[in-house]
Amino acid sequence: MCTGFIPVHITMQEILKQKNKNKKPKTFGAVNNAYEIYHLVQVAITEDFMLSQDVIKSEKYSEYIRRTKSQLNTLAYNLVVNIIMANVYPNNRTDYEDRVHRQNQAKGLCNAIITIFQLLSREINFNVNRYSYLMKLCDTEYSDIKGWQRVDKRFDKLYNKEGLSLQASATNFANLNNNGNANNNNASNTNIAPAPITRLATPLSSTITKSTRGFVFMPQKYFTFDNKLIVTPVHKKFTRERRKLKAYKRCLERGEVLVSDITLWYKSWKCAILKCGYCRKSVFTIDKYFHAIYDNVIQINNKCFNLR
User: Fold this and answer.
1) Residues spanned by the domain of 169
2) How confident is the model at residue 161 (pLDDT cuts 50, 70, 90)?
3) Least CB-packed of 153, 172, 178, 237 within 10 Å?
4) Are residues 128 and 172 in the same domain?
5) pTM (predicted TM-score)
6) What is the sign, positive or negative, of the torsion defined by CA atoms of 259, 262, 264, 270?
């Protein structure tokens, strides 16, 4: 009797479906927090902030509690609306400014929700720690929006460049008719001048330059001299190295690092930079700078380091 297994044919689509079932859907943190804040505020309103019926029905606090509920409901609703409206990709400068305005409004609404709960705890003697999770969530939402705005700064640079070309092209379009000729009905076209060449929104990805002038590619500069190709590191590397040496000197004075660690680090940097191209003169200048800073310290520690 032959025993064995029955082969089962499973397609790739079935495997992917099974894999996607276990995956959690990726969602934006700021949007999730806004919905959760709205839900928690609604829970706090429906349970009357866990206050006793005597306080709720008293003439002193009944109107104040009703007004506070209305304010919280409006703030939480506006928070969700502003976050959803801001979560739209800006296609132009106006969209970007509207997005920033919505984000700023959402940050103000987070602070307003926290302030209302604090005022409520002062006016009515109740334990505000019951809603500590809601307070932390508002703080998290505020910091998430700040991080979101930090990432969105790329749009500011992009639309600042495009603003020059868009403004010039809009002016030229107003001075032309449908056929592309001068619009005589426009009062500004009595003595029309040729349309100026507008600036490109983005620079060209590649340009042609003289080999003697050179160009920078990656962290190196390439140019020709005497019909020979010369490769040198960019000047920024040496400027950064000087700043690092100053910073390590301050750490050394505070006792955070040892002289031997700084020397070994400088040796490794020197070997690496010499492999990047022709830069012996610049490295010699950095050597002099290093000895000017650290020679006294090395002599005090009675240690001799050969950096050549």
Assistant:
1) 157-185
2) low
3) 178
4) no
5) 0.46
6) negative
User: What tokens appear for 137 in the block?
Assistant: 């969530």
Report the chain's mean pLDDT, rounded to a whole number.
74
In the block, which residue shows the tokens 């950095």? 286
pLDDT, tens digit, 9 for 90 and up, residues 184-212? 444 444 444 444 433 434 444 456 667 77
* Alpha carbons 143 and 140: distance in angstroms, whole number: 5
Residue 20's pLDDT is 60
In a shared domain, residues 38 and 145: yes
SS3 category, 128: helix
Return phi, psi of residue 37, to 5°. -60, -45
Residues 164 and 116 in one domain: no
The angle that helices 132-151 and 153-174 make with each other, rounded to 10 degrees, is 50
Q: CATH number, domain at 39? A: 1.20.1440
Indicate whether 37 belongs to any domain.
Answer: yes
- Among 36, 106, 113, 37, smallest CA distance to 78 is for 106
- 259 shares its domain with 179: no
Domain count across the chain = 3
128: exposed, middle or buried (Cβ count in 10 Å: 0-12, 13-18, 19+) = middle
The one-character DSSP state at 227 is: T
d(CA 245, CA 259): 12
Q: Is residue 7 a part of any domain in this protein? A: no
